[in-house]
## 1
Amino acid sequence: MSRGQRWHAKVITGALAALVAVAVVAQNPSPPAQTSDILLYIQQTWKVLTRSNRDLPKAAVDPKFHPGPDGKWPVYIPRTEDVHAVERELSAEIPANEYGTISLHPLPEDITTLKEQGLLYLPKPYVVPGGRFNEMYGWDSYFIQVGLLRDHDLDHAKDMADNFLYQVKNYGGKVLNANRTYYLNRSQPPFLTQMVLGVYEETKDRAWLEQALPEVEQYYKLWSAEPHLTPETGLARYWDFGEGPAPEVLSAERNAEGKTHYDLVKEYFKTHEITAYDVSQYWDRKTDQLTMLFYKGDRSMRESGFDPSNRFGPFNIDIIHYNPVCLNSLLYLMEMQTGDILRILGKNAEAAQWRKRAEQRAAIVNRLMWDEKDGLYYDYDFVTKNVRHYPFLTTFYPLWAGFATKEQAARVEKNLPLFEKAGGLQTSTYVSGNQWDAPFGWAPLQMIAVEGLRRYGYSDDAERISMKWLSLVHREFLRQGYIVEKYDVVQGGSDVSANIHFGYSANQAGFGWTNAVFTRLYDQLSAEDKHKLMESTAAAAAR
């Protein structure tokens, strides 16, 4: 056996052993690596992460909860569907021995009456992120779709978009945080129009595009009406419609001592002076109880996807008082892209109205959120009428969306040293013990920052950062045999749990958006850097 063959055998054997360990702590881990070719591995992984009605019993399993008292996993069907027809269809498709592990129920009109949390039915197959995330997520799915389209899986890419349109139509006008009952009260960052246009660019199916338009417009209304709309600014905020503690936190976010995230928050409030906001809004010191407004903020920061960080004050609780730069950049894109859809459909007058909305939003963001002194975009507190000076990678969203001026983009680029580390871009400049802060780096923010830099002509920066991030992911893949959710870009590894003190600390295997962003950024590299990436990373891992 040659040295190269021995190396490949070592990678595969090590990967299999590692994945056995991963399976102990995370259901549905990434599949055993049967190749050291990371691109081939990613392509193979999409199938493993796919859930369909045929394997609904696997999709219904929720690592964050337990089956019902009857030992079955609940699956809820929207009231707009014929439950008996769906039941007949599923019972014909799923083997009897597996069908017996789930129970179907019509979703009640008042979801607060639900006795058991469960999966929400979707008609088409979808790809899950992996690990504890065994459902279709709101913003993960956009990045996953990018990967599916790249790997020529148009069918599943379209299925993902169709499922989101179905959610808007049948689950309260939202693209849900994920298709579980405990997520019915909130959405996630809006990427729907990008997913719809991603499919259309491949199919050129105008009839399908026209059918999607009512749901696109309905979903936009969620973000452009109160309480998501803040009349003071004309911009949007994140807002969860539910009340009280988030069920998934009580069920799954516990540390080794059995303390929930909420227990740890109270301990933090007792021992730290909070200056970012009036803590009495969120915690009663006399009774040591978190207030209902705290839970509103906690739920709403989960709608943002950044759960948690200290970007909006400790634990992001004050997010309900902010217009985030990320959300409003995405809504600018949604307005522009809805205009594009209307123009394709020959509705030019309506398209012009959407473009005008986008231009107005961009002007407000540039007026309220751009900090000329720091050369960064920040989030705007519409109560105090100030930005919060907390450097965060979302400063690149206006570059990615394309409404930053050349001068603003140049200032942001000059601030790269705040974020750039050995393994790519750290999420913020603060170490808070939260996963969405330093020293951690996340695939979606690498992609948005890199593509924002490329859009404004900073190709050398984009190439350098891509190489750092891709090298880290590739090296860890060769070491472990699977791809994970997040990385420590300062130390250059994926062993992150010891430095995450709030929320859940495990690093999930899978992992949908990391897979997709890896291939996306890899494709944008020069031919020379593609070769260098694979050769140098493999050599480093072999040492």
## 2
Amino acid sequence: MVKPWLKHYPSYMKDKLDTQQYHSMLDIFHESVVKYKNKVAYQQLDKQITYNDVDCLSRDLAAYLQTVQQINKGDRVALMCPNMLCFPIALWGIVRTGAVQVNVNPMYTPRELKHQLNDSQVETIIIFSQSLDTLAEIIDETSIKKVITIDLNELTNTTDSAAVAHEKGMKSAVSLKQAMAVGNEQPLNEPKLSHSDLLFLQYTGGTTGLSKGAVLTHGNIVSNILQFREVIQEYVKCGEEVVITAIPMYHIFALTANTLCYFWFGSRNVLITNPRDIDTFIDAWKNNPVTFFTGVNTLFNGLLHTPSFAEVDFSALKLVIGGGAAVQEAVADKWLQVTGTQLNQGYGLSETSPVLTLNNHCSTTGIGIPVPETDISIRDENDKALPQGSSGELCAKGPQIMLGYWNNDAATKEAMTEDGYFKTGDIAMLDDDGYFHIVDRKKDMILVSGFNVYPNEIEAEVAKMPGILESACVGVNDDKTGEAVKLFIVKQDPNLTEQDVIAFCRENLTSYKVPKLICFIDSIPKSSVGKMLRRKLR
């Protein structure tokens, strides 16, 4: 098949890449720490660590994991940490043992954490101290045996986070600092890794209400880094870039683009631990000549509506990419007006490592064109390819596509076509000019600030609440978060209030999943076979 989008590739961009030039992410790591040894790799407020620091500290952690905790190649290790200096140290420490990193949202509720830990069969967790209360509630119902704690100032101050863990019944807990000190005295035997070895379990929402672990290999991530570099190469001077990372590093977008790709470029990465502290965020930007920034629509919008953001010197800014959800045209227009830099959209999912398309070489509308080595096919409900200009499910094939869902053959089979394309669940079309556009979502997924929210999960949780007969959940437009969760309820208890429902949801759902709007109705519309008709509620 002729790929009509290839005509939009600049002359320097290749469609075919040698994705085998690196055997694993370890090759990329060792190349970077040698090449950029004395340059600053990561920065958090006024604290900095060099590439050599990352090399030495991650080696010590890896040696501890390997010798003391007996972590072997293929074992799963959970990392539950916000954007802090310890995140990349823990990440590379895990990778250097050949283990598989299970990325965990530190804002998860006990219920969500329990499912992810049990599903991934994790015995070791590296966890931010402020998430210890959540772990303490469910640790006895999981396979967790070893806990390594991270304090906010782990690398600079004496920390008592391990003592806090001991008080909560985690008697074997040690701090990251203690683990590295012990590991410093131990040998490290890095395993030989290849493209087929597992690297990450990246959990994504499930339509059944339970999240699924997308199995991402070294080959998936190596390929996506090479693909991303090929597209953005004109914006990159290795060893000179300054990145500001506000999207969580456990999120696949920032994980691949900011944390790994720009590490390979020898960049200085300014970490924003709490992007909701908008003033501190903007101050960090003011104090650093940022050249690359990734965000979601709500983050861009929030910055633009903060007066002090217009005071930032944007002269160094070269590339800005929005993902997670559609960037609104009004936001993109205002961003260009304030910063002088175009806001580009990328498209991808956890299952695709994530980048499938980028539009930095074309118009700001739509999701642009596929990255090299990627084929996109628009299919009908029978998985038959549709002609250009038709709307259908966006299906993708490329070296960045996941191996499958962890221990879930049925879900893996359902997500793939017979000829090996991954079915994204998004309805898209390829226009006459060779650009792709998202038309609608096939699934009932709701996008809140770039995070996936699945109605079935919320409905299943609300069903546990006394006084509720049934409920149905939909997404509605929201100026701040792109979409918001609206919950329709048929109640049995006449005294039940909106506040009661929201309070109940907050107990077991992450904040972005908690319904913003509650509507009590007499009945929920259903089809003749009893299936809820969410489209009528919308």
